[in-house]
């Protein structure tokens, strides 16, 4: 259920949609109003990821309203992510690999196996990944790649992070990264 502020917000959004639908106001009017208010790059990324998850049906899976916290990167760090040609992705708090497999339509034995530990994030985890199609350290062994990631201050991929990464790449390219590089 929504709290009272969220209910008022939803009623307002629904009213605006009806006003647009009934041609009392135009979409360009809304765009003009929005352009008068600048939002931070952190808020822009939060909105983008939150809408993606909602479109996929996250609220149907979790059975509760879904909201992401904004990325905790500074403006300078957000700029560096852009300059490094990276995506900013978010693994929402509390989601298991099983939840993600349903959300992204990625069924796997791994999500139900007692051999695989499931440690959902306790807070929304924002992380950056390269936009390059070719994986880094492709010419290295697994252990060398892990050492290079650690040395360069990169976060290793958990199963859940990798599922978010794969689903996002699929959204953009309609191919999973592992289809080309195995």
Notable characteristics:
9 helices, mainly alpha, two-stranded antiparallel sheet, about 180 residues
What does this structure look like?
The chain has 182 residues and is mainly α. The chain is built from nine helices and two strands. A two-stranded antiparallel sheet has the order 1-2. The longest helix has 18 residues, at 4-21. The protein starts with a helix and ends with a helix.
Number of strands: 2
How many helical stretches? 9
Q: Uncertain runs with pLDDT below 50, 5 residues or more?
A: none
Task: Give the N-terminus to C-terminus distance in angstroms.
Answer: 44 Å
Adjacency order of strands in the biggest sheet: 1-2
Biggest β-sheet: count, sense, barrel? Answer: 2 strands, antiparallel
Radius of gyration: 19 Å
- Estimate percent helicity: 40-55%
Globally, the shape reads globular
Query: Kindly state the mean pLDDT as a whole number?
Result: 84
Which structural class fits the helix and strand makeup? mainly alpha
Fraction of residues in β-strands: 5-15%
Q: Give the ordered list of helices and strands.
A: HHHHHEHEHHH
Short note summarizing the structure:
This protein is mainly alpha-helical and 182 residues long. Helix content is 51%, strand content 7%. It has helices spanning 4-21, 27-35, 41-56, 58-62, 75-83, 97-103, 142-151, 159-173, 177-180, and strands spanning 86-91, 125-130.
């Amino acid at each position: 259920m929504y709290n009272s502020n969220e209910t008022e917000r939803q009623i307002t959004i629904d009213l605006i949609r009806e006003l647009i639908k009934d041609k009392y106001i135009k979409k360009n009017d809304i765009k003009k109003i929005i352009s008068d208010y600048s939002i931070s790059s952190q808020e822009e990324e939060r909105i983008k990821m939150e809408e993606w998850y909602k479109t996929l049906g996250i609220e149907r899976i979790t059975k509760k309203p879904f909201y992401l916290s904004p990325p905790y990167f500074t403006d300078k760090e957000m700029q560096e992510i852009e300059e490094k040609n990276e995506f900013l992705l978010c693994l929402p708090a509390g989601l298991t690999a099983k939840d993600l497999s349903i959300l992204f339509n990625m069924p796997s034995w791994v999500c139900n196996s007692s051999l695989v530990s499931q440690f959902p994030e306790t807070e929304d985890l924002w992380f950056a990944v390269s936009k390059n199609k070719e994986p880094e350290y492709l010419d290295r062994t697994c252990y060398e790649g892990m050492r290079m990631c650690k040395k360069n201050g990169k976060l290793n991929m958990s199963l859940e992070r990798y599922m978010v990464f794969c689903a996002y790449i699929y959204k953009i390219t309609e191919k999973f990264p592992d289809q080309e590089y195995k």
